[in-house]
Amino acid sequence: MSRRPEYSGRLFYLSFILLHQPPLHFANSQLLTANCLLHLTFAAVKANEKYQVVIGLEVHAQLLTKSKLFCGDSAAFSTDPNTHISPVTLAHPGTLPKMNAKAIEYAIKLGLALNCEIEQHNYFARKNYFYPDLPKGYQVSQHTTPICKNGFVPVKVDNTSRNIRLNRIHIEEDAGKSLHDVDENYTAIDLNRAGVPLLEIVSEPDMHSSDEAFAYITELRKLVTWLGICDGNMEEGSMRCDANISIRPKGDTKLGTRVEVKNLNSIRNVKRAIDVEVERLISLVDNGKPIIQETRSYDADTNNTFSLRTKEDADDYRYFPEPDLSPFYITDDYLLEIKNQLPVLPVALKQRYINDYKLSDYDATVLCDDKTQAAYFEEVIKHTNNYKAVANWMLGPVKSYLNENNLSYATFNLPAEKLALLVGLVDAGKINFGNASSKVLPALLLQPQKEPLQIATDLNLLQESDSGSIEQWVVEVITAMPDKVKQYQSGKKGLIGLFAGEVKRRSKGKADMQLVNEMLEKKLNN
Ligand code: ADP
Ligand code: MG
Fold it and tell me: Region 84-104: what's the mean pLDDT?
């Protein structure tokens, strides 16, 4: 059976179904010339004054449980296809599902963090449909009793804060993966992912711009990673988003016909896809053409959407309660236990940074974008009280280093104390910030066990604060530039920068610039 050695034996080839990628029905706009597109964009901007955009997002978050939702198979990602597949995953006759309690715990955590009501009486339901990567022929999901209801996600766009209401969060199992590009003639199926627990987070149609959608999903991603329930990696598919989009005349309360856009594999693409789709919808309506309720796919390379299938009626999944799993009840005690386990959430932590450490709203917000980053900040400030400087270092040179090397604070190997020492050296005027960030920090990162002071000494970067030598450089500079001195004395005070720069150059960047400026002023104004 096997045609490729790397998929030896265990991969299923479906020779009886030819699952090609869906036919591409290109939207008219895709064929337009650049000129027309420009015109379209302009028209869209104008038309936007007439219409309100309405967006509802469905986000699937893969839970970081060790095993799958209903069996002991590993839920971890694997590049080796069909290796995490016991008979339960394969839906062999006679196998029975067993609930993974961790998935319930994670769902409740997210629900509480998003201000939801937690449903205490729960049951699972079968959602029946045929798909080659769905071995059972149905997906076990929650139907009438999503575990979390209502709630909201706070977002801030252009300095305006809004709460985007949630409709529900429910637990369900993932399907396997159909791979269309492994073989020319066949579609291959990898069932590693089948049965992995997901949370489906469904918003109300409450967002009115792609920026709000961007902020919403950024916030959700931050929260699931903060809680440690999902790795939030959209590129790898552990967080997936479908965007439902419609437009309606401004002032209307009735929802317009929606389209659903799938395959949005980054937060940026969610925004881009919404933008092009809104543009398309507006041009349809403006040209008197109907909007068809359909599912569309987004192609990031061409920045266009194309139709996958129309969706005129609600799908009939013939839901019924899953007979192999007993309903479950979440007790008050259990809810309380989980509430007590919740970490301080980013919103509260940010407020603490503003109140206790007098950080700016911006610094506090960015520090709290990521839990490991906030944790590192707290480690550093155990060793220094210059909170603002620590924030500057962490969000400036250290962050640049991490980004450039594709690293994060989660794996950052510089002991927090060393960064505090570096902050201290700058504060004490032993070394200037420029040298500290561009020379000492890189050296320290290569040898984190070394003392920053030692590195600065070895690199000959300690500042000259000896007033004798500084005076000597200052006198040299003033003597060398008599014309400029005259100009300065007749009012061109900005020249002080030129003199200071010259002193800095003569000192090879080691002069304590505060002292230099003081001394220059004194001498020039005498
Ligand atoms: P389905 O599961 O068939 O996609 P749902 O009723 O669960 O349908 O809705 C899915 C998402 O679509 C929700 O986030 C909802 O807010 C959003 N939605 C529904 N109607 C509209 C609309 N007219 N415009 C924009 N979003 C919508
Ligand atoms: Mg949907």
Answer: 97
